[in-house]
Write a structure and sequence with these properties.
The complex is a heterodimer of chains A (115) and B (113). By secondary structure, chain A is an all-beta fold. Chain A has no helices and eleven strands. In chain B, a hairpin with a 4-residue loop joins strand 7 and strand 8. Classes of the chains: A mainly beta (115), B mainly beta (113).
Chain lengths: 115, 113
């Protein structure tokens, strides 16, 4: 069973379009995240979300918005896509982000290419 | 400024050989350090995690060390296998993690037959 799953794995779209990436975790974790991995392979956190609090990285454009229908899902919506949005987006979850040993479980990634 | 630097950027070794990857950090206050393995086209998978009081942790052929005084960590891979070819990412958390989790750029390891 896949612990953290995201769809689609690949997404190719035109500049200006709106797209979504879905994420689901079956680990029973309380907190989910979205990360962006750029061409230099750095993983940078975009959002952290649990049923109480959404934390947004201030560097993330407001064209990006997370939507959580329930505790097991955190979808990423992107409006007016730009060329610079091309990257691999990873969803992750953890049981307790305040724990000093809290482990992150990552999905397989969604490669977004904006033409 | 919280930073995690890894070296080398890439490394090529022959199957069966050992190798050591380095990680230096300036994250404060230090909470824990983790090493992740990321296969091409996959998400990162945790290998080891160490808190301040731990200075070594093993996971099979992977052994991580931590020197909290010098703010350095290493990941030693013994008797490398072709399947060890991947990126190895050092991740340091400050305080309570979450947004205070800083990722290194990774070391790309190639194991050749």
């Amino acid at each position: 069973d896949t612990a953290v799953s995201q769809t689609p794995k690949y997404l190719v779209t035109q500049m200006g379009n709106d797209k979504s990436i879905k994420c689901e975790q079956n680990l029973g974790h309380d907190t989910m995240y979205w990360y962006k991995q750029d061409s230099k392979k750095f993983l940078k956190i975009m959002f952290s979300y649990n049923n109480k609090e959404l934390i947004i990285n201030e560097t993330v454009p407001n064209r990006f918005s997370p939507k959580s229908p329930d505790k097991a899902h955190l979808n990423l919506h992107i409006n007016s896509l730009e060329l610079g949005d091309s990257a691999v987006y990873f969803c992750a979850s953890s049981q307790d982000p305040t724990s000093s040993t809290g482990e992150l479980f990552f999905g397989e990634g969604s490669r977004l290419t904006v033409l | 400024k919280n930073q995690v630097e890894q070296s080398p950027q890439s490394l090529i070794i022959l199957e069966g050989k050992n190798c050591t990857l380095q990680c230096n950090y300036t994250v404060s206050p230090f909470s824990n350090l983790r090493w992740y393995k990321q296969d091409t086209g996959r998400g990162p998978v945790s290998l080891t995690i160490m808190t301040f009081s731990e200075n070594t942790k093993s996971n099979g052929r992977y052994t991580a060390t931590l020197d909290a005084d010098t703010k350095q960590s290493s990941l030693h891979i013994t008797a490398s296998q072709l399947s060890d070819s991947a990126s190895y990412i050092c991740v340091v958390s400050a305080g309570t993690g979450g947004f205070k989790t800083i990722f290194g750029a990774g070391t790309r390891l190639f194991v050749k037959a």
